[in-house]
Amino acid sequence: MDYQNRAGSKFGGGGVASQSASNADRRERLRKLALETIDLDKDPYFFKNHVGSFECRLCLTVHQNDGSYLAHTQGRKHQTNLARRAAKDAAFGKAREGDAQFTGANAVQVRKNTVKIGRPGYKITKTKDPLTRQQGLTFQLQYPEISPGVVPRVRFMSAYEQKIEDPPDKAFQYLLVAAEPYETCGFKVQARDVDRREEKFWSWWDVDSREFWVQVTFKTDREERYSGVPGLGGGGGRGR
């Protein structure tokens, strides 16, 4: 095979560079460019987690080394999120300024700033109802330093609402659990219909042990198939 005369290559160059080699070269150029303008010690979105990886708190991405994070800061996603954050802060500042003018020059502005302290510990257990054969999941989360008076909240989010995985996978959905001052946890589960009956889908906050429990039970294949047929679909609502 002639490796020197392929389309797009120079004479004697050995052929066109592979896609992986081009991506590696691009990341290295972006990393060097970021080193000239970014000080990681002063970057508010740069965070090193407990396993040694690096996270971008703005884009909610995880990187194996600082070079990968620096290359990420020069990408379109990070730059777009920076612009959105700047616009949001500017709009919020104008709104706060208008409130101050309305309430008087001597009014004290109170702004709630919550410092996130990391993710809670958690445990996930697979369940199966012995009678209905329904499959499910039990989530147990520990919040030893939760803010006083705060009760964890839970909701489902579709794959099209999240911004971490692109393109979104419609075969999955996300269970979100939020409790200040901890970061919001997102669990990726199958995009199946959730049985919303009280004994099948419930949550419980143990104030003494500071543990939050969530039980999720999915509908059976038959219930999903006949969910729109009266008398055949069974109880519960859709979880998407």
Automatic annotation (TrEMBL):
Q: Which GO terms describe its cellular component?
A: catalytic step 2 spliceosome; U2 snRNP; U2-type prespliceosome
Q: Which InterPro entries match?
A: Matrin/U1-C_Znf_C2H2 (IPR000690), Matrin/U1-like-C_Znf_C2H2 (IPR003604), SF3A2 (IPR052092), SF3A2_dom (IPR031781), Znf_C2H2_type (IPR013087)
Subcellular localization, as worded in the UniProt entry: Nucleus
Is this entry keyworded Zinc-finger? Answer: yes
Q: Name one GO molecular function term.
A: zinc ion binding
Stretches assigned to the Matrin-type domain: 54-84
Q: Which PROSITE patterns match?
A: ZF_MATRIN
- Disordered: annotated span: 1-26
The family line of this record is: Belongs to the SF3A2 family.
Protein name stated in the entry = Matrin-type domain-containing protein
Record the organism.
Cryoendolithus antarcticus
